[in-house]
Write a structure and sequence with these properties.
Elements: E1 2-7, H1 11-23, E2 26-32, H2 36-40, E3 49-50, H3 52-60, E4 73-82, E5 85-100, H4 103-117, E6 120-123, H5 128-135, E7 140-143, E8 169-176, E9 188-194, E10 198-207, E11 210-219, H6 235-249, H7 251-254, E12 261-262, E13 268-271, E14 276-277, E15 281-284, E16 287-291, E17 297-298, H8 306-323, H9 331-355, H10 362-373, H11 375-386, H12 398-408
Parallel strand pairs: 1-2, 1-7, 2-6, 4-9, 7-16
Antiparallel strand pairs: 3-5, 4-5, 8-11, 8-12, 8-13, 9-10, 10-11, 14-17, 15-16
Helix pairs in contact: 1-4, 1-8, 3-8, 8-9, 10-11, 10-12
The chain binds flavin-adenine dinucleotide (FAD).
Length: about 425
């Protein structure tokens, strides 16, 4: 039996561990810092909107435990505006539904399930200095430790990482009592953009106390939405501050929060980080370890891609491990495996980095404008969030965008 060590119990590490155990033939150990109870009772970790292809990966692996209880997100509503109201708005239906299950619920449940399924769970935060001796005991060691300190083992890939500082100050809260949009009250992700100031994302989430909404501010650092990080606010204080910002910057949203209340006292999350792509192989003594998930491709959450990336990464790594048979998991195999993942993740990274640059490029503004007039453009834009590689042929290059938008114009009569 091949022995595999996975460090980290997030979407990437747990999905890989569970699917390896389910496949059979692997002796899987997962090391992590928190018990299921600590995760479940802890602070929120994400807004974790997972799009239809990622949900399909989970469903195929039998990991969709909460699917029936979680709202089915039907589309994306994009509104661009500011203090004077909405200047541009459209709704793009998704081809398959998206869902968000509070990672506190999901990772705690998956960790318990891994133990029941026969995976070994070791509760121990792995120090960098321990990895060398640990890795020598296993055929393969995978580091799926998110944004934790182990990430420093993996060298930043400057060519694939355009930003060196955080592009947004993050402030999320889970709420009960947010009203749906009266004109179209179906589960949806609301993407609200104030150019030069930041964004507000709102989406339904299944949390510890049932279904609520995540309201997630992404403020340009130093700007008027970057007001959550001076000190840890209580959930009520966070909500008060959010309401003030809604009234001023997102007035079309503000009334929906009149009866909103935090879902629990750990329902908030604040911070920020610089997005980075890292080289996938780290040397620990004479051994090598492979990075996965946020360790190797860390996107700003602006396009809601990180958990989706992690699900794709875990599936690609699983398939590569199985296909390797009894051959060694050497450095060449590690690099090839990561490149297979990067063939997908380069597009979600390009989407995200395009949205958090200094102003939206003109051709993306043209896409948004066209989407207000043309439902098919709106749908194609929404599909790009589910399936970022589908953007490659039309979204990133102004000429390709121009050709697509021209093809949507009615022919002159
Ligand atoms: C505010 C916010 C909103 C987001 N919204 C979305 C969204 O809507 N859609 C989306 O797809 N993505 C979203 N993301 C990103 C998404 O949450 C992450 O990309 C995803 O969870 C990464 O999964 P991961 O398994 O790589 O890492 P993580 O989920 O960070 O898991 C890492 C694990 O490693 C453990 N660990 C860390 N260090 C050690 C150590 N030394 N030893 C042992 N264990 C360790 C941690 O405890 C944790 O269990 C959001 C992120 C944020 C911050």
């Amino acid at each position: 039996m091949r022995k595999i060590l996975i460090v980290g119990a997030g979407q990437a590490g747990l999905q890989l561990a569970l699917t390896l155990v389910d496949h059979g033939g692997y002796d899987v150990t997962l090391m992590t810092a928190q018990t299921p109870e600590e995760i479940r009772d802890g602070r929120i970790l994400s807004t974790q909107c997972m799009f239809h292809p990622s949900l399909a990966i989970e469903r195929d692996a039998g990991l969709n435990t909460w699917e029936a209880d979680t709202p089915q997100i039907e589309g994306l509503r994009v509104t661009v505006g500011g203090p004077d109201g909405a200047a541009l708005a459209f709704y793009g239906a998704l081809e398959g539904y998206a869902q968000s299950v509070d990672q506190r619920v999901k990772m705690a449940g998956w960790l318990e399930r891994l133990e029941r399924a026969g995976g070994k769970v070791v509760l121990h935060p792995v120090a960098t200095s321990e990895l060398e001796s640990l890795a020598s005991l296993y055929d393969l060691t995978v580091v799926a430790a998110g944004r934790g300190p182990l990430v420093e083992l993996f060298e930043r890939d400057d060519a694939r990482s355009p930003y060196t500082v955080p592009r947004r100050a993050l402030a999320a809260i889970y709420l009960h009592g947010v009203k749906p949009v009266p004109s179209h009250p179906v589960p949806q992700v609301r993407i609200n953009v104030v150019p030069g100031v930041g964004e507000l994302f709102v989406m339904p989430v299944l949390t510890r106390t049932g279904v609520g909404d995540a309201a997630f501010i992404e403020g340009v650092p130093g700007g008027p939405l970057d007001v959550f990080t001076e000190r840890r606010l209580s959930a009520e204080e966070h909500l008060d501050k959010l309401k003030g910002l809604l009234a001023q910057w997102f007035p079309w949203e503000a009334d929906l929060y009149a009866e909103a209340r935090p879902t629990d006292d750990k329902s908030t999350l604040c911070g920020g980080y610089a997005p980075a792509v890292r080289h996938p192989v780290a040397k620990v003594g004479s051994g090598k370890v492979l990075g996965m998930g946020d360790v190797v491709v860390l996107n700003d959450p602006a396009a809601g891609q990180g958990a989706n990336n992690a699900a794709h990464c875990a599936k690609i790594y699983l398939d590569a491990i199985v296909a390797r048979g009894d051959l060694p998991f050497d450095e060449d195999w590690m690099r090839e495996t990561f490149e297979r993942y990067w063939a997908y993740a380069q597009w979600s990274t390009a989407l995200t980095n395009g949205l958090i640059g200094d102003g939206l490029p003109d051709h993306i503004q043209q896409i948004l404008g066209a989407a207000t007039q043309d439902d098919q453009v709106a749908r194609r834009f929404a599909s790009g969030y589910s399936d970022p590689p589908s953007l490659a042929s039309w979204f990133f290059d102004p000429t390709a965008t121009g050709a697509y938008l021209a093809s949507r114009q009615p022919a002159p009569s």
